[in-house]
Structure formats: C-alpha cells, structure tokens
Amino acid sequence: MKVAFMFPGVGSHYAGMGEYFNDNFKIARETFQEASDTLGTDMVSLCMDKSRKLSLDALENAQTALVTVSMAAFRVFEQEIGIKPDAMLGYSLGEYSALCASGVMGFADVLKLVHSRGLIVSEYAASIDGTMAWVNNLEPETVEQICAEVKKAGEEVVVSAYDTPQKTSISGSNAGIRLAGEKVVERGGIPIPLRMSGPFHSPLMKPAADRYRELLIDSKIHSPNVPVIANRSALLYRDVEGVLDNLWLQLVEPVRWLDSLRYLLQEGMTIAVEMGPKDVLKYLLKAVDPNLLMVNYEKEKDVRRTEQALVVQETEYNQVITNCLAVVAGTRNYSTDLADYERRVVLPFRQVQHRYEELAASESSPKLSDVQRALQMMQGALTAKRIRGEERERHLQRVLNNKVLQMHG
Question: Which residues pair with 88 in a beta bridge?
Fold first, then answer.
C-alpha cells in the first residue's frame, strides 16, 4: 500500500468548511486558534460564518483559510488514523499545505507567507489586463497550439495548468483569452471562463513574483519528513534550497498536476487522500486512473468513509485472523531446522488456531489483541520459513486487505 496526500488550492474553499473538525476534535480547534492568533483574525468565523462569504473570497483570506482547514484535516487524520503517507502534493496554493504537513515550513510561517502572497498577487492582478479559463475536451498539445496562434495574433496566452489528459487552464490578457476561447470551440473543446482575479501561473505575473520572492528569502525551511512533489517540475523536491525557488516561480509557470499524478502512479501509489475542502483533486485523479482508491477528508460522511476504506474495522477482525492462519498453512517452508520450525511456526500457529476455535465456539468477537497476536504469529512464522521481506510485506497487505490496523482501541 502506497498512500499520497493531496492538498487543494483556491477554488475549493466554501463558507462552512472545516466545521465538522472544529466541532469534534480538540486538535482541530487548536489549529484554528493558532491560525487566529497568527493572523489576528477569527479564523473560525472566516471559514464557517456564511455571512462572511465575500470576505472569505478575498484571495488573501481564501488562501489562509484553505491552509488552515487543510492542516486541521491533516492533524485530525494523523491523530485518528495515523497512516504516514509516502508522498504529498498540493495544487498551487495547496503546495504550501503539503510543505507544512511534511515539516518543511512551520504552520505560522506558512500562514504569514500565503497571506502576503494573496495580497501581492491581488494587488498586481487588479492593475493589469488578464484573466483565466478552463479548457475541457482538448488534449494539452492542441491547447498549446491554440496559445501559439493567439500569440502570433499579438495577444499573450499560455497554458497555466495541466490537470488531466482532457483538461487544462489557460491564462492571458482578456482579449487573448476571448480569442483562445473561440479557437477552442472551433476545435471541439469547451472553454469555461474562471472567476479569478488575474492571469495566474503565467509570465504576466512576473512583477508580482519578483516582489514575493523578496519575502521568501528569509523563510525558515527544513528537510521534509515525507517527500513532496513540486508543482512546476512534477518531481520530488531534492533539496531544501529548491523549495523557495519553486514557490516564487510557481506564480509564473504552469501547474503540472497531470505529470505529478503520473509520477505518483509510476511510483506505485495505490491510495490517494484529498486532505481538505471539496473533492476537486479526487475528480482530477479519477480522470487519470479511475480504478485508484480515492477518498477525501473533511465532512463527517467523508471522514467515516475514509476510516472504513483505510482502517481495519472490528467487523473484519475475524477475517484477518482467518487470513493469517491460511497464509501460514499455505506458504512453503525453506528452513531445514526442524526444532526451530516447531518453536517458531507450529506452536504459535496452534495457539492462534486454538484461540480462533475458542472464539467461534463461544460465538464471541475477536479483540484487537487477538488480531495483533495473529499478525505477530504470521510474521514470525514466515520469517522462520525463510520467506523474503518483500513477500512477507505482500502477505501482510493481502491479509489486511490493503488497510492498516490501528494499534489502539
């Protein structure tokens, strides 16, 4: 099992987000309070008071609110489920949440940065001629050709995000976006104007990027405790020095989300968790690999569904024990030490089998300790049979049905 955490960007925010976490988990309330103290504003009210929707839509507020809710979700997940991801990534702004969750930057530092980022970008975007649009039902190469044609006509338009094999975003001047939209329709695509305040992720934002770069220089960064994929390269951050360059260049270069997802799939990702509001990233991933297990983690029903999908439930304990017995009984022995085999395989197997039969006879349900004992027996028996580590791991994943066993409860 390989797990990736995905963090959403601007556009996924909505009034009421994070309410379930704030109502039910102390660690989430502490996260909102930390954000409020850092920014000098009531983040609970900003995120959850529907009368403040217009205030939430302001870019600097949307950005800090999204990071706050995403980090609250991450911290609740970490506490309640405890699966450590194999990689993290975030869409545009979401990259800050990923870097924060991976330990590269502190939560307070990230909040201050994204607030300043929002102010700088909004101020500059309001002073120039530019906007964005989605393009659906066309391959990226076709959209790139359209952008080149528009540029020949004297207007600036570039691909600003590669989302799926049939969905991109474009940024440019207002006239350029209109002309590109006409060409998109001619080729059978669907242009959708975005309610954005500027031509983000394009060279038109360079003055804002240069100004933001000055703020980044003194940022405190650390090595990640979980690998993070950079938007602009679709590759893992190789060193901490590259983090700051990626963050300011992100403003003028496209989001390579499609390549980022393909990288994860090539690395064997089997589960993706969208950590925060809505399920936009889940939808984008589904367009790339519809068979992958995808869950999002924010509303109560989604949290429950995530737990059921990722964590062995009490109703599954009996099956896990059955699976452990079946694996040990059905796996070939490569050891020639009969005394060791008796001690490390036969006796532990019989003890677990006896307990299993005892539970069945009394129509009792297994406890967590029974499952833990069965798993320990299986791992010890497979080791005694001289089964390689990789194969033991595969057996473990099959026994648990690619879930994790919470070691408390």
Answer: 5, 228
With a cut of 70, list the residues of the chain below it in pLDDT: 196, 407-409
Burial of 332 (0-12, 13-18, 19+ CB in 10 A): exposed
Q: Is 103 left (phi over 0), alpha (psi -120 to 50) or beta?
A: left
Q: What is the pLDDT of residues 144-193, one digit of tens each?
A: 999 999 999 999 999 999 999 999 999 999 999 999 999 999 999 999 99
Whether the CB-CB separation of 397 and 1 falls below 8 Å is answered with yes
pTM (whole model) above 0.85: yes
Instruction: Respond yes or no: is residue 201 known to be catalytic.
Output: yes
* 92 annotated active-site: yes
Tell me which residue of 397, 405, 401 sits closest to 368, measured CA to CA.
Answer: 405
Catalytic-labelled residue, pool 92, 97, 202, 260: 92
Separation CA 275–CA 114 (nearest Å): 18
Indicate the residue type of 80: E
Select which of 13, 97, 197, 201 is catalytic: 201
